[in-house]
Every structure is written in C-alpha cells, then in structure tokens.
Amino acid sequence: MSDRVDLMGLVNQDVPRAESEGVLTGLKANKRGETCIIDFYTQCALEGRAFQVRAGTITTPIVGDVVLTDTKCEMASDIKSGITFMPVFLNIAVRLGAGTLHEYAAKSVAAAVTTAGTAFVPLPLYMGGVASMCPASTGTAGGVVVAAELATTTRRHWSYSNPLAVAAGHGVTVHDWQPRMPPVLAGVASFYVQIAATGTGPSYYASYDYIELPTNAIS
User: What region does 159 belong to: left with phi over 0, alpha with psi -120 to 50, or beta?
Assistant: First the structure.
C-alpha cells in the first residue's frame, strides 16, 4: 500500500471566483500547478476587517503635547469587550519639529475606554466596507485622556526619542512602525499614540492601521 498523497489545486488564474460561505471548494492554483496563497493582512483587508485612524489634514497638521504626559495622548482607539484589535502600522510625519526632547510612543492599556478628545470615525481600508466596532479619538496637545501608565497594565509597543530640535540635528522627520509581531489586544482596552516635545509641541500628520476581529473567532 502506497503512502503517497497527491494534492491537487483548482486552476483559477484568469477569472476570480466567489463561493458561498460553508461550501467546500478546491484550493486555488495557477496554470503551473502552484498553490495561490494570500497573506493574512491582505485577507483581512479583503474581508473588510482593516481600518485606519488618522490625525491632521494636508493643510492642517496636529500639534503635539508639551511634554510627554501620563494619561494624555494625541490618538486613541477604544477596544470593546468581545473585540480583538491588532495595530499593524503607524506613520508619523513631522512637519515642524520645534522644541527639544522629542518623544513619540505607541502603547496600550488593559483598562477602561478613553475620554475627551474629538471623535474620529475609523476609515475602512476596504472602501465602502462595514464600520469599525472600535471608536477612536484625536486631539491636539494631549487632548485625549487614557488610563494612567502602570508597569502591570500598560504595554509599550514602539517609542522614539531625540533630544535635539530640527536645526540642531533632529533630522528624522518620518517615522514608521510596522511590527513583525503585532500586539493582540482583547477588549476592554485602549491603544494610543503620544507625540510630544519640550518647549514647543511638534506639528505632524499621523495615522495607524489596525485589524479588528471578533474575539470568539480566534480563541
């Protein structure tokens, strides 16, 4: 008796197809017989599970805090019970790096939702897709309030610091965070971004992308 197992894929290179939920179908293959595999992030975007929160417009940047202050941030998302939130990308583009001791950070806390700030409706990365279940807020100069930072509840995911102003060597003005191992935040929790400097808050444009999944679908 042979132990050989032949795996076969359904050639589907020229015409996209969509099957109904719960229907068994052949693995997609190209005409060379190679299995077509989609990455997790693209699949989540195609399913309408990826969203963006942004701060600042092309003509009106946001101004950060003076200085980095506990419980204060510039952008935040509230993660409700039953929702799992995965931040996968953060971009900060500094327009005017005034002041000194620039400090930026992305953190999360397993605590109650944020307060204050201006409500921001997350943008679906699948245009026209469903709305996010995670409300967001933005605010100038630490205008969004989050729970106090504690070593037992607050996670630091990314940070940047530079003690110099632009004229004195603060040359890096674009910062990207794209984690190799994204944090997995189960609600109730908050994800937030802090952007600050000493003396004068920096002006900037920023955005972060995240994936949102029902917790009962992954654990």
Answer: beta
The predicted model scores a pTM of 0.88
Token pair recorded at residue 114: 């944020």
pLDDT tens profile 43-96: 999 999 999 999 988 788 888 889 889 999 999 999 999 999 999 999 998 887
Residue range of the domain that includes 186 = 40-217
Cα radius of gyration rounded to whole Å, the chain = 21
Does residue 47 lie within any of the structural domains? yes
pLDDT the model gives residue 101 = 84
Burial (CB count within 10 angstroms: exposed 0-12, middle 13-18, buried 19+), residue 2: exposed
Pick the closest to residue 92 from 191, 185, 159, 175 (CA basis).
175
Write the CATH number for 85: 2.60.120
Of 10 and 167, the one with more pLDDT: 10
Query: Domain count of the chain?
Result: 1
Phi/psi for 40 (5° steps) reads -60, -45
pLDDT tens readout for residues 1-14: 567 877 888 888 77
Question: Which pLDDT score is estimated for 170?
Answer: 55
Asked whether residue 7 is assigned to any structural domain, the reply reads no
Q: Is pLDDT above 80 for 163?
A: no
Specify the residue for token string 């001791």. 101
In a domain, 101, yes or no: yes
What does the alpha-carbon distance between residue 187 and residue 185 come to, in Å, rounded to a whole number?
Answer: 6
H helices of 21-176, in order, are 40-46
Chain mean position to CA 148: 21
